[in-house]
């Protein structure tokens, strides 16, 4: 099957997710910069979640530059990733409104963990479907960064129950780690 419909639905859903997150932001009551402090958690959560959505969109785009065709399994796993991405606005809003209380922050971390796990499953299923000598396997190899990230996301869930600041710190570090797309994919696409 052609990959363009899969990419189109993913792009569309991601655009909607970003819009929903923006709608969730509350406009301050007053007209001064100090009035923004009341919405500090909401703005901070929006920025972090926007970064995550952007990171998934960019990395998804880069990954699919290596893919020629998709099968039903890849489509379903991509839909699985989309499902978890659509949950980000809900948990972003709840964790911010709760001032990062343990349970809402743990759920936020869990959703990000599931996004990372889904993305890893997508990478693995593409590599498996394309075969041992495929471009995907050649360029990605064993994606250690992705495997370590999945573990760190899982750790952030547990940390949120101990100290939400530690959990958020791990999530920020992971966002910074993934901010730059896979260099091997970019190099391959430039050489191509």
The tally of strands reads: 0
End-to-end Cα distance: 22 Å
Largest sheet data:
none
How many helices in DSSP terms? 9
Q: Which class do the helix and strand fractions yield?
A: mainly alpha
Mean pLDDT: 89
Cα radius of gyration in angstroms: 18 Å
Outline, from the CA principal axes?
Answer: elongated
Question: Please, what is the oligomeric state?
Answer: single chain
Runs with pLDDT <50, length 5+? none
| Fraction of helical residues | over 70%
Strand percent estimate: under 5%
Family: Belongs to the TMEM175 family.
Catalytic activity: K(+)(in) = K(+)(out)
Subcellular location: Membrane
Pfam families: TMEM175
What can you tell me about this protein's structure?
Its main location: membrane. It holds the Pfam family TMEM175. It is a multi-pass membrane protein. The chain is built from 9 helices and no strands. The chain has helices at 4-24, 40-64, 72-86, 88-97, 102-130, 135-140, 144-162, 164-178, 183-191. α1 (4-24) runs parallel beside α3. The longest helix is centred in the middle third of the chain and has 29 residues, at 102-130. The two termini are 22 Å apart. The mean pLDDT is 89.
Please summarize what this structure is.
The chain crosses the membrane at residues 12-28, 40-58, 70-87, 107-126, 147-180. This is DUF1211 domain-containing protein. 78% of the residues lie in helices and 0% in strands.
